[in-house]
Amino acid sequence: MKRFYKTVSTSLTADGYAILLDGKKILTPMKADCIAPTKSLADHMMQEWAIQKDDIVTETMPVTQMMMTVIDRITPNRSAFQLQILDYLDTDMICYFADDPQAYAEQQKEKWTPFLNWNKNHFGIAVEITTGLTPIKQPEQTHKIIAQHIEKMNDLEFATLYLLTMELGSLFMALAFIGGDFTPEQTFEAALAEDLLKDEIYLADQYGISPDQERKRKILKSELENARLFLSLL
Fold it and tell me: Are 66 and 230 a contacting pair, CB within 8 Å?
């Protein structure tokens, strides 16, 4: 899309801050007002619009995209999305450790245990883990406490949690990333613990990885960095 505006500004409204292009409010794809609840969010969104050149490149506007996703998709469907991510508790990736080969098991233990321990300590819950693909079920109290915590999140926090859970395959990891002090790099390494070990074994630094793997890793890194940025503006 070609840039169609000259000026970008913000305006305080009853619900938050509107971003104005040539004095007109921006709208979401579903034609809702795109209102930011905090000035920090609004200022960052304003900057994203201001730096666009001849063409509008949406990939360079992660905060604007996130706000529009929250307004159009997450808020109207939050109950369904909450049920969806709570299903991850019994299938959470970081609760299923490899039992063989030993190098994989050790790598998973090193990278995943800090995220599991954060959840145990922060929420005061028990977390069941297993090896292989033996199905597990987390304690009923664990389900209850996590559900209550998620219910208390505002829509912006919940949207970040939902999107990270989908991207990481782990609700526990997403919760720890949002609530703890885990960096995007730590979380990236934990999410790809097995793949990164394979890189070492097969000398990926020397021979490279497939273009598809490289693309997926770039997306994950970007998603984590954007999530941390978004959370810092709330």
Answer: yes
As a whole number, the mean pLDDT across the chain is 94
Amino acid at 8: V
Whole-angstrom distance, CA of residue 78 vs CA of residue 73: 8
Domains of the chain (ranges; CATH) run 8-59 (3.30.2180.10), 76-232 (1.10.3580.10)
Name the CA radius of gyration of the chain, rounded: 20
Q: Please state the pTM of the whole predicted model.
A: 0.93
Contact 128, 136 (CB under 8 A): yes
Token duo for residue 170: 């782990």
Q: Which residues contact residue 153 at a Cβ distance below 8 angstroms, ignoring those fewer than 6 apart?
A: 161
pLDDT tens profile 109-137: 999 999 999 999 999 999 999 997 888 99
Q: Counting every residue, how long is the chain?
A: 234
- Report angle CA 154, 223, 29 to the nearest 5 degrees: 65
User: Nearest-CA neighbor of 171 among 180, 186, 161, 158?
Assistant: 161
- C-alpha 166/C-alpha 73 separation (Å) is 15
Q: Are strands 130-131 and 96-97 parallel, antiparallel or unpaired?
A: parallel
